[in-house]
Design a protein that fits this description.
Layout: E1 2-6, H1 16-30, E2 34-40, E3 54-57, E4 60-65, H2 75-95, E5 101-104, H3 111-122, E6 125-128, H4 136-140, H5 149-163, E7 168-170, H6 173-181, E8 189-191, H7 205-214, E9 221-228, H8 236-244, E10 251-258, H9 262-272, E11 277-280, H10 288-293, E12 297-301, H11 315-321, E13 325-328, H12 334-341, E14 348-351, H13 356-369, H14 376-382, H15 387-402
Parallel strand pairs: 1-2, 1-5, 2-4, 5-6, 7-8, 9-10, 9-12, 10-11, 12-13, 13-14
Antiparallel strand pairs: 3-4
């Protein structure tokens, strides 16, 4: 089959959606399909980073499109970048041939509507891969007014694209419930999260020790937040705790990744003169084991209004390594679902947003436990979410849609 993958990011970008879509593309290509990806020519977190407009990589055709590259410093810059992507993508998609299946992600927002419109003109099935739900996310973040003209128009576009989908891939039961409330039939929904990388993320004591030594973490109790820093994953509770624990030299808060909130974490550390906060950019896949395995306690977060709108993908690599985590989240969400499955509560603690005292108590309890060894029981749960299990299921969804 001829398969089109449409998203803002693709290889060689390191952002999560780029890595997962690239992994899916390789699986589809290995299964004998003709795969084309359309993505931006600029880096997701670094617009100054440019990629070739056209290349063939491991048998996959990659078409990259021009965008203004204004960055994420303000809403209008984001809007102009999104509009530029939409316009450039429209021209490229109109020139490309018909595809049997178009897999659309959700960056920029509502790009699945464009993929659906092109498929309506040329034919072929559409499979939206809902990494986040817009305009719901914009409303929850306060960027759009619920019931306003813009929100109503965007919601209609969203619902129209869902109504024409052959299958819709959502990431958890809460996201499925939101789509069902919008009138999407349950039979259209396939629930599977993005997978972890069992071949890349592994126990590597030498890489752990080297990473900790490189960044001055040897002998410290390391709390790590690794991944996208966005308003959907508020970190104010963790930062307030870091401020309170600033005089305790045992602890180091390590924030790895990118996104609009990452510079704010750096600014917070500078503003308060905190030496216990360290910020690093995204780590390449070949260094992921060393960085993730260097944490004594992983931090994950889910904003209260965003349950069922976004998904905490970073949790799966943590589970695969069998390491403990502390979730800052609502009482009912995917993170609390996972914590409830763990046989040892020391490996999955949850606190509510704003509960700084509870956060500090959890951190101190974790430090009292010491550096817990990787848990085989946690790893077995993580084994349900690896690429070897989930990627073939996704490929089957695509193939059935094309049939």
């Amino acid at each position: 089959m001829r398969i089109l993958l449409l998203n803002q990011c693709f290889h060689p970008d390191h952002v999560s959606t780029a890595q997962h879509l690239t992994d899916l593309a390789l699986g589809l290509q290995e299964a004998g399909h003709d795969v084309t990806a359309v993505a931006s020519s600029r880096g997701y977190d670094d617009p100054k980073l440019r990629f070739p407009a056209h290349e063939v990589w491991r048998g996959i055709q990659i078409r990259r499109i021009w965008t203004p590259g204004l960055g994420k410093r303000s809403k209008w810059r984001r809007f102009v970048d999104f509009a530029g992507f939409w316009l450039s993508a429209t021209f490229i998609l109109l020139r490309l041939p018909r595809f049997d299946v178009t897999v659309c992600l959700t960056s920029p927002p509502l790009i699945s509507s464009l993929g659906t419109a092109i498929a309506a003109l040329k034919g072929g099935a559409v499979v939206p891969w809902v990494m986040d739900l817009n305009p719901d996310e914009a409303v929850a973040a306060g960027w759009l007014r619920r019931g306003g003209l813009v929100e109503r128009v965007l919601s209609r576009l969203q619902n129209w694209s869902f109504s024409r989908a052959a299958r819709i891939v959502v990431l958890d039961r809460f996201m499925a419930q939101r789509l069902e409330a919008k009138g999407v039939p349950t039979s259209l929904l396939h629930i599977d999260p993005p997978w972890s990388y069992e071949g890349t993320v592994r126990h590597d004591l030498a890489a752990r020790d080297a990473f900790r030594a490189e960044h001055g973490l040897t002998g410290k109790f390391v709390l790590m937040y690794s991944g996208n820093h966005s308003p959907c994953h508020p970190l104010e509770t963790a930062l307030a705790a870091a401020l309170r624990l600033g005089g305790d030299d045992r602890f180091r808060f390590l924030f790895i990744g990118g996104g609009s909130e990452h510079p704010k974490v750096k600014a917070f550390a500078v503003q308060h003169g905190l030496r216990n906060i360290l910020c690093l950019p995204y780590q390449p896949l070949e260094k992921l084991s060393g960085s993730l395995f260097s944490a004594d306690l992983h931090l994950v977060a889910m904003g209260d209004p965003f349950t069922g709108i976004v998904h905490p993908c970073k949790i799966y690599n943590i589970l695969l390594l069998g390491l403990p985590f502390l979730a800052i989240c609502p009482e009912e969400c995917h993170l609390s679902d996972i914590a409830a499955q763990l046989p040892d509560p020391r490996y999955g603690r949850c606190v509510r947003h704003g509960d700084v005292e509870g956060f500090i108590a959890a951190v101190q309890a974790a430090a009292a436990d010491g550096a817990l060894p990787p848990s085989e029981a946690v790893r077995q749960i993580g084994g349900k979410f690896v690429g070897g299990v989930l990627r073939p299921r996704f490929i089957e969804v695509v193939e059935k849609a094309g049939a």
